[in-house]
Amino acid sequence: MNLHADIFRRTALPVYGPARRHPASSGMEPAVEIQGFYSRPDFGTASPKRTRTNAYNFALGALRQAREDAVADRRVYMVTFSNAAIPNTITITQSDTGLVKTTYQLPTDVTFNVQIGFPVSQTAAPTTPDAFGVGTPAIDFDQGVAGGVKNTVYFYPDGSAQDSLNNINNGVIYVGRPGDLFSSRAITVWGATGRIRGWRLYQNSPSNYWRQM
Q1: Is 64 helix (H, G, I), strand (E, B) or coil?
Q2: N or C: which end of the chain has fewer CB within 10 A?
Q3: Which structural domains are found in the chain, ordered by start?
Q4: What region, left, alpha or beta, does residue 128 occupy, with left being phi > 0 and alpha being psi -120 to 50 degrees?
Q5: By C-alpha distance, which of 31, 53, 58 is closest to 42?
């Protein structure tokens, strides 16, 4: 499946070196290098539904890309999520060299965030996605690891997801438009297998629940 087939323009400008914003960019659009090309999604007239979907696809695709590359290249790839500033970013780095392979920027109206109305229980239905965490924080890796780094996951050549200390790294991230509860999506990672799953929030009065996509 080509993750970017429906969200990127057909044209691209060549760029050399790590992903970077093209000089012509207004600074508002995500700049992404894909296989040696610079490509800029056109969010200028995008609907809220489209930007939400694009942001979810960026996050899901980045995790899958890093895992696939780790297996294919027999190297460790690190994925780092950041919601410290707008736009939020996702960075894929080759761990042993420190080379940044790809950086994604989310649409500016979508962030990694949690909202009131998310399920918070790991045991009583409706549970958190894959029963990971308690519905917060928005970027929540290293489940059950004391002092773990919450925003980073490493994919190994065997397909597993680990942390910087080689602990099995289970985790969940939440992405959506702030103030729009049912725009929310979640993505879970199972550390032992590297399995990645997407989730959507639905309403079922009086509670909301996550369903796998």
Answers
A1: helix
A2: N
A3: 13-212 (3.55.40.10)
A4: beta
A5: 31
Q: Are 190 and 130 in contact (CB under 8 A)?
A: yes
170, 143 contact by CB (below 8 A)? yes
Q: How many CB atoms lie within 10 A of CB 67?
A: 22
* Threshold 0.90, pTM exceeds: no
Nearest CA-CA partner of 6 in 52, 45, 57: 57
* pLDDT tens per residue, range 153-207: 999 999 999 999 999 999 999 999 999 999 999 999 999 999 999 999 999 888 9
As a whole number of Å, the end-to-end CA separation of the chain is 16
Residue recorded with tokens 């042993």: 96
Residue with tokens 């725009």: 183
User: Rounded to whole angstroms, how far apart are CA atoms 95 and 77?
Assistant: 5
